[in-house]
Specification:
The chain has about 100 residues and is an all-beta fold. The protein is built from no helices and eight strands. The chain is globular, with a radius of gyration of 13 Å.
Length: about 100
């Protein structure tokens, strides 16, 4: 999955390498962030991505959560955990932020 930030940089989920790659407008590699793992700030099969107001929301297939980073790649927080109750996720397959800032 891909999403552009406010600087027109493209953030790309690299599912099998458990990272986010950042490319410029011409498709040239700029940087990457994330690494495989289940600790805070690590990624476990990132599958969908959404960039909104300077934050990158990454839906993770195996960790059953959404990790939030700044567009520079600094980890901010995790949303959700495995389960079927309020605030819990199971194999999350997408992420979007609405106009009120709700994820």
């Amino acid at each position: 999955d891909v999403s552009f930030d406010d600087s027109s940089m493209l953030h790309v989920t690299d599912h099998h390498n458990n990272r986010i790659q950042v490319l410029d407008q011409g498709g040239k590699y700029v940087r990457e962030y994330g690494q495989r793992g289940s600790d805070l700030g690590q990624l476990d099969r990132p599958i969908f991505i959404h960039v909104d107001h300077g934050y990158v929301y990454v839906s993770e297939w195996y960790s059953h959560c959404v990790s939030v980073f700044t567009t520079s790649g600094r980890f901010v927080r995790t949303i959700g955990r495995l389960g079927s109750g309020p605030g819990e996720l199971s194999g999350s397959r997408g992420v979007i932020v609405d106009t009120d800032g709700f994820v």
